[in-house]
Design a protein that fits this description.
heterodimer; A: about 400 residues; mainly alpha; 18 helices; elongated; B: about 130 residues; Alpha-Beta Plaits; two-stranded antiparallel sheet; 4 helices; about 30% helix; about 30% strand; globular; disordered N terminus; DNA binding (chain A)
């Protein structure tokens, strides 16, 4: 087996082994450390010595030993030389059970900050090492290690039990889980700084984890919607930047570079989810992405449908960013002045004051009305307001284009 | 996609401390010691939360050298570059949830409570190099 295949295998097995261990011993905190050590040991040994016949059993055995060593040394510290009561029992391997969801709910515990939820999810459920997560988020390994250990202490302090919440709490907590997966995907998708390779890995990882949730909860429309949204967005990744790393806006992308396989899968998922009883924000965003995917050229985009979907999204999840996107769709249907009129309703919104997206959309619509001076000024202001170098380059190039 | 990406992902910020040597000199020994202890506690808390990337303090501005190249020749003069009352005395590079959190952290720095010293928070836009160093 090659190293990447072993890596995939380890990532798949991590939540299973961790789940089995926590079921046997409780104490998520210690188990998570033990599994991380077992995974690191496997990553060193397996490529050199070959993958064991029962890799899951191997990991479970090694992690159990690490945990028991840990328990013994803790115990010894407390009681000096007295005999320990820890019984060396490796939990039974029950490959049928899947604790992925339970672990996800634990890692996305509401007492944690989003940054901690993301880090812990990637390690405990995604099977990434602390070093890999630190690299992906461009922070020192020590910083990431501190964040993860702090998160686990908080979960411990909150006294969470290892099991799925029920009823209304399940829905509430599931929303947090989906948001964390969405953040991981976005981090990979934006690729605004640092090594783009590692960031793309995060998008893959988010899709893989969301697929796992989808397998467990196939009837949940928002889970399906989020998976579809990720696939449809990821399908455009080759077309959305030039080889030099410059951003290409949707209407200028070479649509032949879109990944048809991902689009087909995403569209099927959207259709399935829209047939369900409830409609959520991820489903609507996925439906919008599917509408764009459906158009062979930018001119063929079904803007009335995009606009209608944003209108529903605005009603169920009011957010100035949604209104901003609706203004773009409205401008395509009724002309740039109609779009600008809708934008002006956002002027008093503090959440968007001086935001580069508001400035750049206004610049774009002003350009379409022929107001080149206004467009130039807004493109320049938008370029100053963004924290993304790729976006800044793009906005500055638009500014010089309207001036020319 | 990207409805809220930059608002919600973790962000890096540089919190720079603009010191005024005259203001610092006018403080009592106790007040100066309190600043040092305050920074110590602040660093410890940032390490605990995993939000600290690095922090560095700089020597007195009188030790600065100003470098320019004229006609291809480097010219070095005694600093500081700007004639000012305030100088950058050091910084914290942090990784936190959003700008509000960065501002909340900045307010915990003892300098922020002293008239004549300034704390500035700016988001990092580009980074490269070894963070572990």
């Amino acid at each position: 087996m090659t190293a990447p295949v072993i890596e995939d295998l380890l990532r798949e097995l991590t939540p299973q082994v961790l789940g089995a261990l926590v079921r046997r011993h409780g104490q998520f905190e210690g188990c998570e450390d033990a599994v991380q050590e077992a995974v690191l040991a496997a990553a060193v040994q397996w490529p050199a010595e070959g993958v064991p016949d029962n890799p899951r059993g191997w990991l479970l055995t090694v992690a159990s030993r690490r945990l028991i060593d840990q328990l013994r040394s803790d115990h010894a510290r407390r009681e000096r030389e007295s005999a320990t009561a820890a019984v060396e029992v490796v939990p039974e391997d029950v490959p049928g059970t899947d604790d992925t969801l339970v672990l996800l709910f634990l890692c996305c515990h509401p007492t944690l900050t989003a940054a901690s939820q993301v880090a812990l999810t990637l390690r405990a459920v995604g099977g990434l090492t602390t070093a890999e997560i630190a690299r992906a988020f461009l922070v020192p390994e020590a910083t990431m290690a501190a964040r993860i250990s702090r998160a686990k202490q908080r979960i411990k302090a909150a006294g969470s039990s290892f099991g799925l919440p029920d009823g209304a709490e399940l829905q509430e907590r599931l929303r947090v889980v989906l948001h964390v997966l969405y953040l991981i995907f976005n981090e990979g998708y934006t690729a605004s700084s640092g090594s783009e390779l590692h960031r793309a890995d995060l998008a893959h990882e988010a899709i893989r984890l969301t697929r796992m949730v989808h397998v467990q909860l196939p009837e949940d429309g928002e889970v399906t919607g989020l998976l579809a949204l990720m696939l449809l967005t990821h399908a455009r990744r080759e077309a959305r930047t030039t080889p030099a790393g410059d951003l290409v806006p949707l209407d200028e992308q070479d649509r032949r570079k879109w990944d048809r396989g991902l689009i087909d899968e995403g569209v099927e998922l959207v259709k399935a989810s829209l047939a369900g009883p409830a409609l959520g924000p991820y489903q609507l965003q996925a439906a919008i992405a599917a509408t764009h995917a459906d158009a062979a050229t930018a001119e063929e985009t079904d803007w009335p449908q995009v606009h209608a979907l944003y209108l529903i999204l605005e009603r169920i999840a009011p957010n100035p960013m949604v209104t901003l996107n609706r203004a773009i769709a409205l401008a395509e249907i009724d002309g740039p002045r109609a779009g600008l009129a809708l934008l002006s309703t956002l002027d008093g919104d503090e959440r968007l004051a001086g935001h580069h997206r508001l400035l750049s959309v206004r610049a774009h619509l002003l350009e379409k009305t022929g107001d080149t001076a206004g467009a130039y000024e807004h493109y320049r202001r938008a370029a100053k307001a963004t924290a993304s170098i790729a976006e800044q380059r793009y906005l500055e190039s638009r500014a010089s284009r309207v001036r020319a | 996609m990207g409805l809220a990406k930059q608002e919600e992902n973790e962000m890096k910020f540089l919190i720079s401390m603009h010191i005024n040597p005259a203001v610092l000199d006018a403080l009592t020994d106790e007040e100066q010691a309190a600043i040092g202890e305050g920074h110590g506690r602040f660093i410890e808390a940032l390490k605990q939360s995993g939000e600290l990337i690095t922090t560095q303090a700089l020597v007195d501005p009188s030790q600065a050298a100003v470098v320019s190249v004229r006609n291809g020749q480097p010219v070095v003069t005694d600093g500081p570059f700007l004639e000012s009352k305030e100088y950058v005395g050091g910084f914290y590079l942090i990784d936190c949830e959003n700008k509000e959190r960065a501002i909340e952290l900045a307010a915990q720095i003892p300098d922020a409570a002293i008239e004549g010293l300034g704390i500035e928070v700016r988001q990092v836009m580009f980074a490269d190099g070894q963070l572990e160093a």
